[in-house]
Amino acid sequence: MFRRSIGRVCMVMLMLVFVSSVAALAEEVTITFFHCCGQDYRNALYSELSRAFEARYPGVKVEDIFPAAGGGGYSDNIKVAIAGGRPPDVMWLGNGLWNFADVLLPLNSLYENEPHIKEILPHIIKSHIWEGKLIGMPYGINTHAFYYNENMLAEAGIVMPNDWTWDEAISMAKKMTKDNNADGTMDQWGLALSELTQCYTFGDSFYTPDLRKTTINNPGTIAGVQMYADLVTDKYGVHPPSGIGGSNLLMYQGKVAMAPRGVFELADYEKNAEFDWNVQIYPELQVGGQTYRTSWFSSETWAVYAGTKNPDMALKFVSFLMERENMIKFSNLGGIVPTQPSVARASFLQATKPANIKAFTDMLDWWKSGYSHPAGVTLPGEHSQIMTGQIPASTGIQEIERKVNDLLDAFWSKR
């Protein structure tokens, strides 16, 4: 009897030791979560989601880290953290994703096995693949659409068509470009461009699917780049000379009728535009019987550092962030088009202003990858020469393609 009691006591003690050990181990699991970029309303939601994850997995702590923009910026702070032995486990990454392509954990398993992630549009997933690895989970896209002043269109007797071509857009712009005070200088313009590099994706994505070559020397891209150059050098007489980068201010001042800008600027227009406004998809470009269309695209992703000490928990955290209820909260903050159609329908598309909010989601069908690449590709000097009218697009693009492919050849030869 005595021996049985001793045995029971020992068993109970062993179980207590085991439970205590498991609890101790659980308390040691910490996930560091880096996010960007000084936006308090986002930071509050990041923290809320971190606390919700901790509640779901007792004993796991999510350490929220908001790297200061000082130094060299968000990406540089991540590099410093990695070099200093305190890397993030999970991190927010925008276009800087490609700076970390070789140090990120593949997320293929999440896309293949998690239904709420599987619904992300396949062509968007493909544009985040590096050497067969899904290196970032694209949860949101910043697409651009054409914002337009409905009052200025109405004054010119113009009704925005359901769809349009660039020829139609330029024709409309000419009717709204005016010298209002008859001093010989235009003070109202039909349209103003913002980002110019998007024109290199009229024909297709900037790179071949394997990211080993660029193929921008094609009829669609040549025509699109030349059209942009003609617009900004005012060949058509519809574009303000100082419009690049300042198109929002000119719109607010009533000096520009139409300008392509990002989805993240919806809140600014709601706040600053003292006129009726709406949005429309980018016009289509017709060249040689073919139709081309592009926009400015950039993505926001969740990524996991390959050297994380808790890869399983880090992947669980990414999956948690992508859950429909959580992404609806994120979408409701504004600034992105959700990549999950169910989230877009439940949140983003419920907005009543602008009336044509669907234009931003429609642009996802035309998603193209830009020139961000682990090789550190930048557009050479010929880009500026084209955009200032010094050389034609056909000549400049041929040289840009040659230089970029030389850089890519050198990059790949070392891998």
Shape: globular
Average pLDDT reading: 90
Query: Taking Cα atoms only, what radius of gyration do you get, to the nearest Å?
Result: 26 Å
Q: How do the helices and strands follow one another from N- to C-terminus?
A: HEHEHEHHHEEEHHEHHEHEEEEHHEHHHH
> What structural category do the secondary elements indicate?
alpha+beta
What is the CATH level 1 assignment of the largest domain?
Alpha Beta
Total count of helical runs of at least 4 residues = 17
Care to describe what's here?
This protein has 415 residues and is of the alpha+beta class. It folds into two domains: 2-140 and 299-357, Periplasmic binding protein-like II (D-Maltodextrin-Binding Protein, domain 2, 3-Layer(aba) Sandwich); 143-297 and 370-413, Periplasmic binding protein-like II (D-Maltodextrin-Binding Protein, domain 2, 3-Layer(aba) Sandwich). The chain is 41% helix and 15% strand. It is built from 17 helices and 13 strands. The protein has helices spanning 2-27, 40-56, 74-83, 108-113, 115-118, 122-126, 150-155, 166-175, 219-232, 247-252, 266-272, 311-321, 324-332, 341-346, 358-362, 382-387, 393-413, and strands spanning 29-34, 60-65, 90-93, 129-130, 133-134, 137-149, 189-191, 256-262, 277-280, 285-287, 290-292, 297-304, 337-338. Strands 1, 2, 3, 6, 7, 8, 9, 12 and 13 form a nine-stranded mixed β-sheet that branches. Strands 4-5 form a two-stranded antiparallel ribbon. Strand 10 and strand 11 form a beta hairpin. Residues 1-7 and 9-26 have low confidence and may be disordered.
